[in-house]
Amino acid sequence: MQRIRLRYTKRGRLRFTSHRDFQRAFERALRRAEVPMAYSAGFTPHPKVSYANAAPTGTGSEAEFLEIALTDHRDPDKLRELLDESLPDGLDIIDAVEARTTGLADRLTASVWELRLDGVEPGDAERAVAAFLAAETVEVTRKTKSGMRTFDARGAVAALEASDRTGDTPCAILRLVVRHVTPAVRPDDVLSGLRAVADLAPPVPAAVTRLAQGLFDEESGTVTDPLAPDREAAPAAPQTAAGTASATAPEGPAA
After folding, report:
1. Checking DSSP bridges between strand 110-118 and strand 139-144, what pairing results, if any?
2. d(CA 22, CA 6)
3. Predicted TM-score (pTM) of this structure
4. Residues 107-158: pLDDT tens digits?
């Protein structure tokens, strides 16, 4: 059995696709591309697809991940092309590697988000960010399946900065690095925290996009590519006989 790990996006209007809608679209794409899927056992077999930490409905993403199990070997790059052609524009498969390590979900410990705040003056956003980062805790309340829950949104935030976007109307851009903790702290929780500490209230809903997702490096403060260990574990391509001869042949006399 071969396992393939895929990175996909949710762009444009497809950011409003729910995770269940994506699952249905992806399973149709598997059938169209005639992927030799492995299936679960039992009375209702289903394709062996493992999804990891999907972005909330309404947010865009450049870094969603899943893993599929195949009964026959396939080239990851060709498989990526076939699946990408079988999905609607906006749901794009942008990377594929053969799984050669364990624990993909364990390597998704943080996300990088971009929040576009139309109608917000960059100076106001910078002051709100400074107030948020200066606070030891920022309590926010969110409705969950078990009811209303209050939790700290500050502790999960590893980095937060504000910048501006040139244009005719005010627009502030927030770049956020948030650790994946329990309970999960989402970008809208951070926006609620900015409202609580600095009364920052965008006049229109923020446009939120996940730019990256992976292992958080505490030393550098960066989020690393979770598929890199699989690429590094791939065996080196065997050297051809001609290539070996060329590499070891002594140089001839100078002309």
Report:
1. unpaired
2. 14
3. 0.88
4. 999 999 999 999 999 999 999 999 999 999 999 999 888 889 999 999 999 9
